[in-house]
Amino acid sequence: MPRFVLPAAVIAALACAGPALAANETIAVFTKNPTNPYFQAVRVGAETAAKALGANVIQYIPTKPDSIPEQLSQVEDVIVKKPDAIVFIPVDYKALVPAVEKINAAGIPVTNITDRVAGGNLVAYIGADDYNLGLSTGRALNGSPNWPYPSGGLPPDRQRNHAELRKLHGPSADPGPFSLSFWIRRD
User: What is this structure's pTM?
Assistant: First the structure.
């Protein structure tokens, strides 16, 4: 699979989530650090997809890897610049919730990829549900459908994902043994 597929999918998701992506629109792309090859691929893929769609990209990369204060500062900067949309990978999924809420208040649509932010309003989320992938693998290896929770329930911090899935797709929605989260909210 080409390494630019996910970032191209993000740009395509932004195009599908609202009015057609027009030439000269600006998309801000936030990644966690400058050295990780995955985040480098996200940046290159975003540039490639934006070029194909006639959009512009502003890259926001903390100079100190995974720096919460630096990414919070970058969010303040992006709000002033007011791009047409944001692709966001938070350096910390809880600490950056207020930043996403500020972006929401500024009226800028946010698509979250890779590490799901714990709050705020998103146009879309694209990423793997690592917890459920690991849980399903453990259950398969252990042979118990309830491992590691004898009651069969999920820990409270993971119930949110399932509640959102059911809210969006009905009470019978089940991520199955392996799940890739990809949804687009249309208001």
Answer: 0.67
